[in-house]
Amino acid sequence: MCLLFLVAVTALGLASGVLEVSVSGMSFLRGSANYVWCTTSVLGKGATGAVFQGVNRHTGEPVAVKTFNQLSHMRPHEVQMREFEVLKKVNHESIVKLLAIEEEQEGRGKVIVMELCTGGSLFNILDDPENSHGLEEGEFILVLQHLAAGMKHLRDNNLVHRDLKPGNIMKFIDIDGSTMYKLTDFGAARELQDDQQFMSLYGTEEYLHPDMYERAVLRKPVGKTFGARVDLWSIGVTLYHVATGMLPFRPYGGRRNKETMYHITTEKAPGVIAGVQTSENGPIEWVTSLPETCQLSLGLRKLVTPLLAGLLEVDPQRMWNFERFFQEVTMILSRKVVHVFLVNKVQPLTIYMDPEHRYEELQYLVCEQTDMNPVNQLLLYDKKHFSEVVAMDQPASSYPSTTPRSPLALFSKQDDDVTLTLPETPAVKFASFPALVSVEHDATVGKGMCGVGHAIKRKIDYFSNVCI
């Protein structure tokens, strides 16, 4: 509504001069030489500023405008200028596009004008009950692809972000309906070579590397310095959050239990990708695989789990570097995806094949997910035996395309029964509301119920489509 009003203001010619419009003495329009924005149309807020929705006063193009508060202006001048310099240096489709840096009228300082990402932040998307158990597989792949591409561009320019989290990843929806996830908020970013270190503290505590958490949150006077690889830990936490809808390291009581949070992240064994404490002073449940309740297929989970284990490694000797991360993501994205429907169990499978793998490897990967020996596998494509469609030595990269709605059909030669095995839902039953009324607790319980409902609906939709 506010955006429509801004467009109307522009069309009426008010943008040519008068920008201070008030209702009952309250000013809610602000502007610069070429842009005007509404202070009631808040897209996001942080410690040093806020982002508002606005428009180009000449064309009516919707934009996002970042303004800075008094706390930001109290920082050293070189720190204030750092975000402007970083944004001028980067230019990539996976990074929110800089449109202009202008002086705000009324002498309030500089503002950053950026392209508007109408899909909102990844944090808000994950906060939707529909995504309580993470994003669906195709969307997760997009986040992984675009996040890695954006980070590759930053590292190619010797830049470190230092505040990576879902709240700083925006969903951009193009006019053709295509989606792009973009990095934003470079207020903590700085130039840093791979062999350089820094000491200043930035970031959001749940996504902080343990060494930074120790100093920034626990306030321990340790003389550690930090390198660019701290971004990799934040990427790992973010990707786990995107895959499952939950943070990987969860002490009982959340932020108030900071010492346990530090213990979980620093004491976990190699290969552990999550640690959860479910009671006061209770034991930690160590997790080495993604939960079955997430929307990722078993095939993708097998690829993503070692990626997360490498990113969420605190031992400097085991910790990944950026080159390893980019290589692993490239490997995952290059896989040939083969959709298979196991008729005997009415079960969908998603197989991720190396592009150079042959038919024998496909059979092995099917066996890995079904325990069905290759000699008992009957794979059909378009009513033909799949071995008649592709040669045994033909690379997977040249296999015909499949989709969840048009998969390969898999039958067991050994078992002619058909048994519908429904996947487990995220909870055996809906939670119940306690007798004592608590708005905050009741909202959490209600959101959890909605999440379970959405998970059940997805299963019903899938099996309904299969029957069709």
Automatic annotation (TrEMBL):
GO terms for cellular component: cytoplasm. It comes from the Eukaryota. The keyword RNA-binding does not apply. Residues 37-342 form the Protein kinase domain. ATP binds at residue 66. PROSITE patterns: PROTEIN_KINASE_ATP, PROTEIN_KINASE_DOM. One of its GO terms (biological process) is positive regulation of gene expression. GO terms for molecular function: ATP binding; protein serine/threonine kinase activity. Transmembrane segments: none annotated. CDD domains: Ubl_TBK1_like. SMART domains: S_TKc. Keywords: ATP-binding, Cytoplasm, Kinase, Nucleotide-binding, Serine/threonine-protein kinase, Signal, Transferase. This is Inhibitor of nuclear factor kappa-B kinase subunit epsilon. It comes from Chionoecetes opilio (Atlantic snow crab).
